[in-house]
Amino acid sequence: MNIPNVNHYIxxxxxxxxxxxxxxxxxxxxxVVALAMVSTLYLDVTSQAAIAGREIQDLTASIIVSQQLSxxxxxxxxxxxxxxxxxxxxxxxxxRPMESEEAEYLVVPGYVVLEPDIxxxxxxxxxxALTFPPEYNQSLLDWMDNKITSSSSRGTQ
Length: 157
Fold this sequence. Notes:
Layout: H1 2-15, H2 18-80, H3 83-92, H4 134-137, H5 140-156
């Protein structure tokens, strides 16, 4: 039964060879479509990476421009607030240097000048081995010896 079936298929292919050609063309087109899909996916990912890279370059460039502008503004501010420029502006506004005879001091009753803690000359406490608890003066070997002797004395009682 199986043999006539096979002969039937072979006979059908011999009568219509275009069926085999059609299968080959279909397989080739399927391969081309699959390759086109993979290529499209690859190009999409690559283009997104390129766009992201370009945006990073643009942001880096704008950061550099902002840093340069900030540096320029800091330089301009430093030149405007320099001692010589400030003195010239003060003279133009009618100010003049103060003479020592013109200084007036006010005495505020009850005001006490606080001394900073750094400048105080309070004596530092003297630390010695005697001021520490005995646990901190004991070496590791002494501690182990005490533990062994205390555990052995408990075991004998």
